[in-house]
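Run log // design_07
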């Protein structure tokens, strides 16, 4: 009986998977792009999806088939207000937040736009690293000005 309980406990622990997500909040507002990855059980393959949102009007989840999410690196470029081009290896996508549309390019776009950041795995965790240039704080600009 003791062995049966131990076996059941071990099977329960191996059944635990993981869910991770990282978000790029656009202009701190109600628009966002989120990357999620889900693992059914420990050691299984990850399923990756992109969630495009503009609250409260739309939110859509798009599976990213063929994207290797255990070492994913997805660059996020902005081409215009609410329009983004995403790149993961040889795969290129375009999305926009006005209607939460998303589609894959057949070939790489000639100019993807301004790099805003990258979704990546660091220390086993999915994260978004912001690459957008930051405006200097008001006090920092005065301090840097020549006297």
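design_07 sequence
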């Amino acid at each position: 009986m003791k062995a049966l309980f131990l076996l059941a406990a071990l099977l329960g622990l191996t059944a635990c998977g993981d869910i991770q997500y990282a978000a790029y909040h656009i202009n701190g507002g109600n628009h966002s792009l989120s990357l999620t990855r889900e693992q059914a059980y420990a050691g299984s393959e990850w399923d990756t999806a992109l969630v495009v949102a503009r609250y409260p009007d739309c939110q859509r989840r798009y599976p990213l088939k063929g994207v290797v999410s255990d070492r994913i690196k997805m660059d996020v470029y902005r081409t215009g207000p609410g329009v983004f081009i995403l790149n993961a290896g040889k795969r290129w996508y375009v999305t926009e937040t006005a209607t939460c549309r998303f589609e894959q390019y057949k070939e790489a776009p000639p100019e993807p736009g301004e790099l805003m950041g990258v979704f990546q795995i660091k220390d086993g965790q999915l994260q978004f690293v912001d690459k957008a240039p930051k405006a200097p704080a008001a006090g920092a600009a005065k301090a840097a000005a020549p006297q």
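The chain has two helices and ten strands.
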